[in-house]
Amino acid sequence: MRKIAKGNSSLRSGISTALIAVVIVVLVVAVGAGVYYYTSSTVTGTTTTATSTATSTATSTATSTATSTATSTATATTTATVTATPTETPVTITVWETYAPSTSVNSEFGAFNKSLTAFEAAYPWVTVNVQTHPFSSEQSDFTTASLANQAPDVIRVSNDWTGAFVAEGFLSPIDQFANTTFFSQYFPASIADYQFRGHTWGLPENINGLALYYNKNLVKTVPTTTDQWVQMAQQLTQYDNTCKITTAGIAFNYAGGLGGGYWWWPFLQGFGGSVFNPSNPAQPTINSSAAVASVEFVNSLVTDVNPDSSAGCHGVMPAATAYNDAETLFDQGHAAFLINGPWAESDVNSSLSKINVPFGVTALPTVTSTGKPLAPFIGSQGWEIASGKSSAETLASWEFISFITNYNSQKNLATLSGDLPSNAALAKDPAITSNPYTVGFLAQAALSSPAVNTPEMGIVYADIGGPLGQAEPSSNTSPVATATIQAQLNTAEAAIIRAIGSIG
Questions:
Q1: Do domains 2-208+381-434 and 211-375+463-503 have the same CATH topology?
Q2: Which of 21, 119, 135, 262 has the highest Cβ tally under 10 A?
Q3: For residues 127 and 481, what is the distance between their CA atoms, to the nearest angstrom?
Q4: DSSP H/E element including 5
Q5: Residues 6+ apart with CB under 8 A from 339
Q6: CB–CB of 362/219 below 8 Å?
Q7: Side-chain-side CA neighbours of residue 245 (13 Å)
Q8: What is the mean pLDDT of each run of 10 residues along the chain (504 residues)?
Q9: How far apart are CA 251 and CA 329, in angstroms?
Q10: In angstroms, rounded to a whole number, what is the distance separating the alpha carbons of residues 454 and 134?
Q11: What is the pLDDT of residue 246?
């Protein structure tokens, strides 16, 4: 049975803007006499008081930022053992979902309801009280509800909220229910998105991240190295008689500090850098020589003289290109390459089909000087379980999230709404491989990195955009000195370290 209701408006503290490998086995959900049964003992997670600010980036609508602040002085999560009993005890769980409401079956909301109906048939003793929350306010809503002991049992999340929620004591770990064989059905990066402090806290229902779109009328062979990529872009860039770019070789969200940092991560990692020290995930490393080299490379796409321009024009992409500018250039057939995520595919397809321009999606090239791929973060939306609930509610919540992210449920999302699956076996299903764009995004996913989900990463997103913006050229003929780039990255890192200290 289910009840569907609007989200509790009393829990909303306001709308903030929200930012986005191969299987061994496939989960089979067993129903009938052999299923788990419940007792009423309590699984507890301690929530008391520290100050923590989490700013998360997601990619469902390209890029945006959600900031939530919670107070707590200590955090702890107690994992209790759930005991089985021989009866099917009725239980009600409250689920917060964030899909855009739609009357269409061919939508995320339609796919979710199809899977929810199947869950209800499999678990008739579980009543699911579904509440719809806007994605943009859900992080702060859940924080407010948890502090008031009014949290739902299950919440649909962006993976990069995980660290903050765990640090605040709001989540129950799920590795008490599953082993590595179970987790191996998901792409490793997508499970890593929900791992923090030695535990797994959620299950991914999809994956998302940047990849390389290309105009097939302009690009006949996809580049595999950055040298090839730049050379092709130089040959394909066109200018007017004032050297203004009319057809860009490359376009992506460059304004505002590489899209608030989100479009920087592939270049940073490709040049051998990282956001944090791998051995100390709270120590930022964004002022490294690799970080400087990555910014210099991106800036060169804007300011270097194009050897294929007889007039000596500069750049293969316009300066200060914002998200919409980059997509418009590509949608109108005036860009050879676009870096964007799967959320843009529908709009790109609709626009280019009107002008009969075919396009493809592939993995970003490898950096020639390092041999490392340009590696975006792989993020996801997924499901997590609140702490402080009874064992009956916690176990029913586990059954729900494992069902709503299983092979069949993800197939509903993939085929009805175009979501990219996190289930590695499903990625080989003909229903998925028949879509060449999906295949391209999945090829990129195999070369990408798990998104950083720590509370400190929220601080990076809050503080990196301004300094990166100051390190970018203001025009195609205004190169930025290496010393200026280094100074801006030092400024950003110092600000991040100070902010991390304030939440420690």
A1: yes
A2: 262
A3: 62
A4: strand 2-6
A5: 210, 211, 212, 213, 250, 251, 252, 253, 263, 266, 326, 364
A6: no
A7: 32
A8: 42 32 31 30 31 34 34 33 54 97 94 98 97 94 97 97 96 96 96 96 98 98 98 98 98 93 97 94 94 98 97 96 97 98 95 98 98 97 98 97 98 95 96 95 94 93 95 96 97 95 68
A9: 8
A10: 23
A11: 98
Give me the phi and psi of 64, to 5 degrees please. Answer: -160, 180
* Closest listed residue to residue 29, CA positions, set 412, 404, 383: 404
Q: If you search the block for the tokens 């939508």, which residue do you land on?
A: 107
Q: How big is the CA angle at 439 (ends 342 and 271), to the nearest 5 degrees? A: 70
Task: Specify the length of the chain in residues.
Answer: 504
Q: What confidence score (pLDDT) does residue 88 get?
A: 81
| Maximum CA extent, the chain | 82
User: 97 and 156 in contact (C-beta within 8 Å)?
Assistant: yes
For residue 91, list its beta bridge partners: 126
For residue 455, give both structure tokens.
Answer: 């509370």
Name which of 201, 228, 258 is nearest 376 in CA terms: 258
CA distance 184 to 24: 6
Residue 484 pLDDT = 97
CA distance 33 to 271: 55
Instruction: Give CATH for domain 2-208+381-434.
Output: 3.40.190.10
Q: Is 340 helix (H, G, I), strand (E, B) or coil?
A: strand
Quick check: 414 and 426 in contact, CB under 8 A?
A: yes
The amino acid sitting at 129 is N
Instruction: Determine the Cα–Cα distance for residues 359 and 215; give it in Å rounded to an integer.
Output: 5
What's the pTM?
0.82
Q: What pLDDT is attached to residue 503?
A: 63
Q: Where are the beta strands (DSSP E) in 442-482?
A: 449-450
Q: Which two tokens stand for residue 99?
A: 């899909």
Q: Which of 243, 205, 225 is nearest to 95 (CA)?
A: 205
* Crossing angle of helices 482-503 and 289-303, rounded to 10°: 130
Q: How far apart are CA 21 and CA 185, in angstroms?
A: 9
Assess contact for 351 and 422: CB atoms under 8 A: no
Q: Tell me, what's the pLDDT at 504?
A: 54
Q: Domain-by-domain residue ranges, the chain? A: 2-208+381-434, 211-375+463-503
The pLDDT of residue 495: 95
At 246, list the tokens. Answer: 């009319």
pLDDT at position 281 is: 86
What DSSP line would sit under 254-274, residue for residue? -HHHHHHTTTTHHHHHHTT--
Residue type, 200: T
Which residue is listed with tokens 């649909």? 156
Q: How would you classify residue 299: left for phi > 0, otherwise alpha for psi between -120 and 50, otherwise beta?
A: alpha
Tokens of 347: 């709009």
What is the residue whose two structure tokens read 């579904």? 130
* Architecture in CATH of 211-375+463-503: 3-Layer(aba) Sandwich (3.40)
